[in-house]
Design brief:
- Chains A, B, C, D, E, F: It comes from Chitinophaga niabensis.
- Chains A, B, C, D, E, F: GO terms for molecular function: hydrolase activity, acting on carbon-nitrogen (but not peptide) bonds, in linear amides.
- Chains A, B, C, D, E, F: Pfam families: PIG-L.
- 6 copies of one chain form a homohexamer.
- With 236 residues, chain A is an alpha/beta fold.
- Chain A has one domain: LmbE-like (Rossmann fold), CATH 3.40.50.10320.
- Chain A is built from 8 helices and 7 strands; from the N terminus they run βααβαβαβαββαααβ.
- Chain A has a 7-stranded mixed beta sheet, sandwiched between helices.
- The longest helix of chain A has 18 residues.
- The first copy, chain A, is globular and about 50 Å long.
- The two termini of chain A are 12 Å apart.
- Chains B and F meet through loops of B and loops of F.
Chain lengths: 236, 236, 236, 236, 236, 236
Amino acid sequence: MMNILCVAAHPDDIEILCAGTLVRYAQEGHKITFAVFTSGNMGDTFIPPEELGKIREKETREAAAIIGAKLIWGGVMDEHVFPDQQQRHLMIDILREADPDVIFTHSPNDYHPDHRYVSQLVFDSYFQKGLPFIPNQSKPACRFGQAQLYYMDNLGGIGFIPSEYVDISKVFSIKQQMLACHKSQVQAMQQLADTNLAEMVEVQARFRGLAAGCRYAEGFTRLDAYQRGLTKRVLP
Amino acid sequence: MMNILCVAAHPDDIEILCAGTLVRYAQEGHKITFAVFTSGNMGDTFIPPEELGKIREKETREAAAIIGAKLIWGGVMDEHVFPDQQQRHLMIDILREADPDVIFTHSPNDYHPDHRYVSQLVFDSYFQKGLPFIPNQSKPACRFGQAQLYYMDNLGGIGFIPSEYVDISKVFSIKQQMLACHKSQVQAMQQLADTNLAEMVEVQARFRGLAAGCRYAEGFTRLDAYQRGLTKRVLP
Amino acid sequence: MMNILCVAAHPDDIEILCAGTLVRYAQEGHKITFAVFTSGNMGDTFIPPEELGKIREKETREAAAIIGAKLIWGGVMDEHVFPDQQQRHLMIDILREADPDVIFTHSPNDYHPDHRYVSQLVFDSYFQKGLPFIPNQSKPACRFGQAQLYYMDNLGGIGFIPSEYVDISKVFSIKQQMLACHKSQVQAMQQLADTNLAEMVEVQARFRGLAAGCRYAEGFTRLDAYQRGLTKRVLP
Amino acid sequence: MMNILCVAAHPDDIEILCAGTLVRYAQEGHKITFAVFTSGNMGDTFIPPEELGKIREKETREAAAIIGAKLIWGGVMDEHVFPDQQQRHLMIDILREADPDVIFTHSPNDYHPDHRYVSQLVFDSYFQKGLPFIPNQSKPACRFGQAQLYYMDNLGGIGFIPSEYVDISKVFSIKQQMLACHKSQVQAMQQLADTNLAEMVEVQARFRGLAAGCRYAEGFTRLDAYQRGLTKRVLP
Amino acid sequence: MMNILCVAAHPDDIEILCAGTLVRYAQEGHKITFAVFTSGNMGDTFIPPEELGKIREKETREAAAIIGAKLIWGGVMDEHVFPDQQQRHLMIDILREADPDVIFTHSPNDYHPDHRYVSQLVFDSYFQKGLPFIPNQSKPACRFGQAQLYYMDNLGGIGFIPSEYVDISKVFSIKQQMLACHKSQVQAMQQLADTNLAEMVEVQARFRGLAAGCRYAEGFTRLDAYQRGLTKRVLP
Amino acid sequence: MMNILCVAAHPDDIEILCAGTLVRYAQEGHKITFAVFTSGNMGDTFIPPEELGKIREKETREAAAIIGAKLIWGGVMDEHVFPDQQQRHLMIDILREADPDVIFTHSPNDYHPDHRYVSQLVFDSYFQKGLPFIPNQSKPACRFGQAQLYYMDNLGGIGFIPSEYVDISKVFSIKQQMLACHKSQVQAMQQLADTNLAEMVEVQARFRGLAAGCRYAEGFTRLDAYQRGLTKRVLP
């Protein structure tokens, strides 16, 4: 049994980029944690931030509940992720609370700044999660172990070349069901970016599936670091 | 009015990877030439080569006819492309016959050897097409001009990052119609690789469209070379 | 008619790296905005910062005036660009004021830290410019549109491989005239780095011209992102 | 039970670059085939080719016998690998004879020309092994399946960044024992390149082990292609 | 006689990654400065930070003394390097104090966040070290010269491809002796990461030596920038 | 005293891409060999090949004579370089005749096919030059040593990022004088490609000089291979 953590910048990022993989982990009996760093409260041009934040937290809880995942709600203001000391402390506490064997987060080459900075904060907090003397933390240090760090695809798959694939054909409908919980964002993407989220997610999963030799797939890359070149598969 | 040439390894490669763009060129009044280097006669496990080659030539002629393109049939044996002197001579003659302003061919990083070698032969024949003293050529030298060379996407879009896009939304149905002419290959792909060609082409065009901000797109990269860094768009 | 914005770190960066392109846009009737993020007031070893900042602003206004460009003067202290919240707010306001269709800024791989951080701030402010609820902004949100983002060459063209070129042969003398307005920097570069700016700019434009097949050119790369893979040319 | 094939250019390449992994496959009950494309008969400055070829074949058979691997002896003249039609035919027959589920060969970026060309020939023969109508072959077509293709590290690990690792700690002594069979080459490397092969192999396996978090490892990269993005681990 | 500066994030980084090269510089009569940015006081799970910081400073002084190097002790809290204004000021003062002709620091692609940020701070402080009007500095500006900037290998050499090598065969025992001064860290690495530092350093130096054609080597890459493309060797 | 060999595809390639460096070697007393693989006899649209070949050989001899270099004239037909067995034999003999310590040739990423194939042939012949039993060679094996292999810039410097620079400021006029010997090609470049060779060479050398911090420079990259990671500078 492993602890699986996915840290995303906004509500719905997990569902778009990683949910199929997390469903498979959940079905195998692993413990899943969603960490959503911001409240996604700027992602609309009509609904005011305070109201939107509450809506999006509720939608995220519904999505996480579908696979029995625990939700850590970071509550950082949307579009305001910075790799500074304060947010580092928050990220260290998130990692400590999840004590992960496997971490998923955004790719450092993503084209949304919040995504990049969340990725950087996860990278930056990797060692500190297991060091007991870091000051100003709310949570005690977790294992100083060799958690594996995977980077997720981006919205639209722009310039992303996966090195790892997970077959999500059998759980794709659950992924879509989880995404559909994010009603507010499904609507906003339609208005702001003329994008049908469900269709976009299907095209992307199908495109990755063509590469992977299955119907639907999610793609990832892995961070290489000392003693973390894997000699077994930890992906489902 | 420009001369547009697409050189592909097998019948159906043009339709899968470039037809939308060629339809648009044709609609703008440019002169289109299809060059199919091999007869695609090995691409089946049941139909004997001689018979298959004839079928595929016929299917290709039908597809080219849809947009009034001229067809140059290379007739090289399928799976036997080599960047040697004999095939170089053939490729130089093909380029000379088309006298192109814009050339499309496979990417040098494609994962099918025939595609790679056709790409290499086009690259290798670029200067010679315009040099009058190359011996053993059937065709006279054409213009020694600065034709632009674009590389096409590959089957499934594996590891290919386009730097240029063409919006093919309005002509996508024509592209599919051209592809459908290749009945024998549509069937073989289903049997050999469990692939529905029409669906694969739609997923890929839609995926490139997500990147390009339109419904359907084809993606390309451009060869950079002396005096060929473009200062205007020659793509439709 | 498009709104064209160039955001640079220091006075004279625009003239060195992008002015030819901006002249061409201006000649085509587009609206040009120069945004100079710092006052360039550290760029000398003799003239004190306060005095130097005033000189450089005056010089920049003269250069911008040559093509009737609007100037936004960021006023950040030279050599003190940081991608923090305060400067993010400033950059969002700059983008909102210009409401750009096309943005030019430094490359993220530039070797001057101020250049890199300005580039990062532009990247980081892209979505926020169009989101109405971002707090603490002086300017109202502008269009949430798909502005194109281009990265400029660097000083000396070190390790920069352009993917796009603009032919500036006919306007090169205007570019040099604009650069010549920066008298203080022309002098400082001579003293600090033993560099004749006008000559360096000519060599670099000529070198890019060799690649582009014209006398003088400026080179750029483009940021690829969701729905921003261009299907038409927005460069002059 | 899978068919595992390793195609190398010279006797001793398999032992240096892949033997640990093959031992592990053998211990798991898979069927192992060594294919050595050249006879390695030029690799000495004193022993004449004909004599050396016989010595090296004998040494290779001893090494293969240690893990009960089948040996296919290509017999091409050392330093004379060319990706031409004749050697392509030979390579297709080798692949057909082994009918592999997993193929290992040299990396296309290796710095020995024979290694590169063997790699290219394997790449070039991939589809043809399963196509029944390829003329002039001695062996009948094998499965047209989705064999996975892995590229091996190079001698000294120069510029090679593995994406996959196999833990060979427990079988490292067997790898060294297999290498030691190549007495003639151990001696030649000492004379020609001042290299102690056993020590070099230990340093390299230990270095890859540092990355992989184990005592000794071998590193590989994987060829990405249509339907070959793996969703499970086929490495031991 | 040149001023050689090595800026590292933690005590023992210099010894692991650069000491052999610094010994050689010292033997040639150059002036060596060690700058250790943090006190390394979080690098243990038992010894409290305050105590650990003192131990590590003492150990570092012993190591530096072996080659008569000057030590600048940054004193930043371990795991708390940020590329912000405060630490930038500190780094500028460090560079000014050393007034370097050659600078070594961590690679921007290192996988420890402190290493990356130290690298970034060095990069960011490069020009400011020689500009006299930077406010809030303790040290006066040093030369505005063309110091060369080299990036060091990382722990375990993960994904690092050196472009420059220094032969440290004759001074390798001194490097190991310097490393051995870091008793506390040798012990912590054993406990936290199951790593024998001396053995790891030997494997890595030997591996780089295989590439460089000598027994032991250290590898580096060089920052390319305007007027800093070297036309002579400044490495020993 | 070292043996310096430059192998180029056509007459005038050495002068354009490497002559400054060779002048400096010559001035330091090293032995210089020019090897021109083809006779350049296709490089004109008016002068017939046989006549042109003679003209170009004469021009090349004049250029080589200026620095007392030996000339090996390969005599291969222009635009007909192939990496096949026959041309491999020729290249091995060329390398054996020069017995080089340092080799310069075209970059494998050059955009002229003859340049690429000459580069590949040099790469392919590296080991064989020192192996005594290679059949069908005219020359006896030379040293099996660790000659360094450098790749030259390309015409126009397209997409080439040098990692090594040679300061040719003091010998630039000699380089131009050598280039001027190639009267026929100076004329052809003007006609065929609208290029003033002397001006192009000056722009490129000046551009590389900007990077290298001198007036004129030539840029190179180095091939990394086992035991060839240099620990000293062999460039002038």
